[in-house]
Amino acid sequence: MTFPRFLRLSAAAALVVAAGAPFATRAEAQSMEDAETAYTEGRFLEAVEIAEALGTADGYALATKSLAVYGYYLAPEEEKQALFQRAMELGDMAIQADPANPETHYQSAHALGRYSQTIGAMTALRRGYGGRIRDFLEATLARDSLHAEAHLALAGWHADVVDRAGRMVARITYGANRGESNTHFERAMELRPDSRIVMLEYALRLPLLKGREGRELQRDMMQRASELPLGDAYDRLVQERLLRELEALEGG
Questions:
Q1: 8-119 domain in CATH 1.10.3470?
Q2: What pLDDT sits at residue 234?
């Protein structure tokens, strides 16, 4: 898949864009709809530029989301951490602009989660980032109980902490358990039954959550997800990741 040249900018350029210069004058004349269109079409760094310049909670949240997606799926490995740190700053700005907005908390969790992946799960847990991610996600759901992505992320949080720390330590130290993971995954599936990312994230953790039955269900769920109609640029990135996971599963 070929992406626009804009997506292949260096991290230095990405950080300049995220900081609002030198394109701020042009971006200020644009709208949230323009930022959303840029995101949908895969012009993620341009979406950051436009959305941040709006100076609103929704704008900062979209900028956080766009930069986190770009950093995870498209940026070179050595540039990811700096991009996620900038995304975390934008998430903080979003919450400060409107603490009642659920998306500001969700995107803050998104950015911190991606940053945590660059330093390792156990390091992130020791530094308290795991608890902060959970707090952001619970704050999201307290404001919008139907936020499917927050249910999905919280499900993944519970599963991943159990996987890294072990069942007993996860439960006693971090309050994570497989039952909560299953509950939130099922809720995400109810809310977004045709979501490729929901099906992929659930499938990847089914062996941990359901043992042998989960391993049997995993391939079927991933195959069904791969056959869904393609959506926006982000969904296409998820599809590419899904196909790699399927190939690895079949190779294993």
A1: no
A2: 98
